[in-house]
Amino acid sequence: MESNNNEIYFNFSYYALNLLGKQMYTNKWSAISELVANGLDADASIVRIYINSTIKDKSTIEIFDNGSGMSYFDLANKYALIGRNKRQEDSEISDKVKGRKGVGKLAGLFLSKKYYIITKNKGIESAWVLDSKEVKDSDLPKLDKIKVKDIKIESKQIWDTYNKGTLIKLTDVDMSNFAEKKLDGLKRRIADYYLLDEIGARIEVAYITNSNETIDFQIVKKEVAYKNFYAFFESDKNLKSEELSTAIPIKNSGVEELDNKKRNVILLTPETVSSNFTIKGNKEFTGLDGKKVNIPYDLKGWIGIHATINSDEARMNDTRFLKNEVYSPNRLKLYVREKLAVENFLEYLNNNQAFSNYIEGEISFDVLDDDRLPDISTTSREGLSKDDERVQILIEMLKIIVSKLIRERVSIRQVIKEEVIDINEKKLESQKIAKEEERKARKSAEEHSQILNVENRKLKDKNFSLTTQNKMKDILLNESDPKRQTLLVHELTGISNQIDYVIDDMAEDFKNTKEYNRISPYLADLKKSSDKLTTIKKQFLRLNDYDIIGKQNIDLKGYIRSYFNNTRL
């Protein structure tokens, strides 16, 4: 059917459009990013995304830009034409155009069965609607012209300030499984789809979940935890290296001093990755016409390996680190013409080495979408054909870079292991020395204790002897009865003799034993005590005899007192 001023027909049936739409997009993020790309292709300097999810399964999405807008001719001959090469037709901006197949508008049908297009071009504003709620597969999709005022534009306050541009309003979009992080998650996901520093435009998002919220657009920014990288490759000097830390800790050693020790961050360039390694070159590829064509290729971007992917530890290095259902740091994103081509190119490398899940990066390889070469996108548009020689070149280059990064991370792990072993060995040696010192100290204490025990026993014996002597002295000094004195002398003789017998018996019993040397000092002490008793007895008898004979007057008590005072035991 032919288009007219009020109706614009697509050149595909609903069956073909639905089939393509389902094959081309696997999630809402990719579909939304495709609509954003259409705005960027229209040379917009700002693209805004507004999502109203007050009713989750009937959400509203508005995506609008300040690009060139579309006239009726543009809508009828470009927008509604599926499969046209935008780069060939828009030669003046071909270098900026992200896609070349003209199928990006199918993203709208993937997200919603009914959407509106409001566009401003050369001072003229028009509005159109595509409603596929009640159609047959054989029907041709069409845009019906409607009045702008009949569309409730929730971002109208901002849209009205635009002199040119396009607004896509999607209705009844099912956002039931939308990420819990909401706006932050949305911003990160949208940021993933573009090289924001190179697209020459700003992307903003606003997201509300209840009617009381105000529309607050926030700039989409890359949130990469650069300060958590231990080793880092960049294609061009100072591409992102200024964002890195100079040194960071590598934890989980189990040794506090090592966990807190900072390790120098390793910076790699193409020259330091490997000998004869290059990321640039020229190669003859098979062109669209089947003939060989020489085309240069150049890998650009950065790849890093994280010091840790433990969220708590990583955030201590860089608060931007995020790992959840919305965002994963373990991705090597591939871009072509500043737009995401493969969400995780690591899957193409088949690398199962340790720490491969620590890899994160953003690379671009524009030769993958060179206009002179065939399209290598898979049917889903979210993958590349691994058999294509361009993809093979990219895989080989990335394998070398990724392997180098992993080796650096493995190397520092080994260094830390050796440091742990060294510390543990020193600790064990220190413990051995401490135990030996403790053993020596304990032995010394035991020996000292034995000496003290011997001295203590000697003191006790001496004290007992002194006590006994003092008692004897008191008895002798206070005794005046000659009969009792005689009896006392008799008792002293008996005790002295008994001690001598005991000493002789003990000496005889222990003479041939190992204990003889040990008890000998005690026997000697006993002998001394016995001798003193004998001396006292003899002196007492001699003095007493003198008194009996009457040769002289003797002060017996005075003599005994003098004897005891001048005798040392």
Could you describe the 3D structure shown?
With 569 residues, this protein is α+β, with helices and mostly antiparallel strands. The longest helix has 90 residues. 42% of the residues lie in helices and 19% in strands. α13 runs antiparallel to α14. It has 3 domains: 213 residues, Heat Shock Protein 90, CATH 3.30.565.10; 198 residues, no CATH class; 88 residues.
Features:
9-stranded mixed β-sheet, 6-stranded mixed β-sheet, 42% helix, alpha+beta, 569 residues, elongated, Heat Shock Protein 90, 3 domains
The N- and C-terminal alpha carbons lie at a distance of 141 Å
Beta fraction of the residues? 15-25%
- In total, the number of strands is 19
Largest sheet: 9 strands, mixed
Number of domains: 3
Q: List low-confidence stretches.
A: 546-554
The coarse overall form would be: elongated
- CATH level-four homologous superfamily name of the largest domain: Histidine kinase-like ATPase, C-terminal domain
Helix- and strand-based class? alpha+beta
Helical residues, percent = 40-55%
Compute the number of helices. 15
Q: Nearest-angstrom radius of gyration?
A: 52 Å
Strand order, largest beta sheet = 1-6-5-4-7-3-2-8-9
- In CATH, what is the class of the largest domain? Alpha Beta
Mean pLDDT: 84
CATH 2nd-level architecture of the largest domain: 2-Layer Sandwich
CATH fold name of the largest domain: Heat Shock Protein 90
